[in-house]
Amino acid sequence: MAAVRIDQVRIVLGEILQWKFPADAVLSRWLRANPKLGARDRGEVAEAVFDVLRHLRRYRQFAESGSGPAARRLAILGLASVFDRSVLDTGLSEAEQHWLEHVLRIDVKSLSRAVRDSLPDWLDERLSTLHDADALIQALNAPAPLDVRVNPLKADRAEMLELLRNGAAARYSPEATPYSPWGIRMQGRPPINRWPMFEKGEIEVQDEGSQILAALVAPKRGEMIIDYCAGAGGKTLLLGALMRSTGRLYAFDVSAARLARAKPRFARSGLSNIVPVVINPDNDQRVKRLRGKAHRVLVDAPCSGLGTLRRNPDLKWRQHPDSLVELREMQASILRQASRCVAPGGRLVYATCSVLPEENEEQIEAFLADNPEFSLLDASTIVVDRCKNLTLQGPYLSMRPDVHNTDGFFAAVMERNKTSSVESTIPQGKDKLVDQPAPAKEAATDEPGALPQAGLAEDSASLDD
């Protein structure tokens, strides 16, 4: 068994490490091509693969010693976190057993942080500037639990928790999330997509940090609201339910494929107020017709997804400083475009699943400097209305895995002055939405229960989006 599993993990890693596609997409494709594998087999392959991706730099340094293909030694190191040593040894040669014993005795504290915690140098440098960087990095390197939420239109959290605890789901230790009033957290790899409550639209996969964004938007019945980068529709669904399926909720995205993936979820939810719209990247006429009309606009901007490394560890290696520059330009452009849809006195919420200031606070500071008709609101006073236990420091929402046990999330809440004009002062052609591949945060949960990363593996397409 161990010998076969080593070869399977080696093959999957060989495809992933070409960095052509997100790791979860490659793994899902490989699993579909091997349908005879049982649930335990699939789980063991997935856990080993993601363990290697979390610790890739350190494992590669370890793999420089020994003999034979380095890819095989990476697979062995990944499976060392899955199998008992006595089981793994049955698939190893005597030389490999000695090599593994040697590298596992290495004191990781003797390694530099970038190697120990497997970060590219540029990312280690950026994260080192953040408060309590070591704790944050270690938390980002740990596997994430699976967060789901109830559909407030169809289910009550307390009743759903009782149902889960008294059924087959009890083995996954379901418990209420500490901050979101809609969330339920589970451990392990529950096959959510095969549960009747999922099929009936009573629960959805969504990280707790993402759920809290809905509390900042604070939708009301009968309003016009725009989810400007709707993706696979996770946040749209919660907003629509909180509106009690009244008013009009536009789900905008430049990708028809992402919105197509959202439509079955919209149908399951029982909502009738969602209007999915594929918008053009540049000067979309439907967006222009909504200028100054929306009560609330959510911009969950395409981002590096570095706050989701617990679920998408390959992003450490797929992102680079140049891509961040492009993302920052795109984020600023999208935020400007979306802001024009906000009515006087309306609310604009900007959010990312990144922990980097250049995608977060710095974007807001630049936007407010260029758009004095908007003012920053205190997120802490808004979020407490729904999330009683969440205490924030400062005007922003900043969620961290080491502090809140959520993915890394950022959000800022702004309001357009009640007397301001909604006419654009931006030169025509300056803003252009690039039709990008699915952002990093959408690669995580397209198939809940399929992989060990949040029960599925952001941004990617993600049910968490």
Automatic annotation (TrEMBL):
Gene Ontology MF: a single term: RNA binding
Ranges of residues in domain SAM-dependent MTase RsmB/NOP-type: 136-417
Species name: Pollutimonas subterranea
Region (Disordered): 420-465
Entry annotated with the keyword rRNA processing: no
Family: Belongs to the class I-like SAM-binding methyltransferase superfamily. RsmB/NOP family.
Xref: InterPro entries: MeTrfase_RsmB-F_NOP2_cat, MeTrfase_RsmB-F_NOP2_dom, RCMT, RsmB-like_ferredoxin, SAM-dependent_MTases_sf
Name of this protein: rRNA methyltransferase
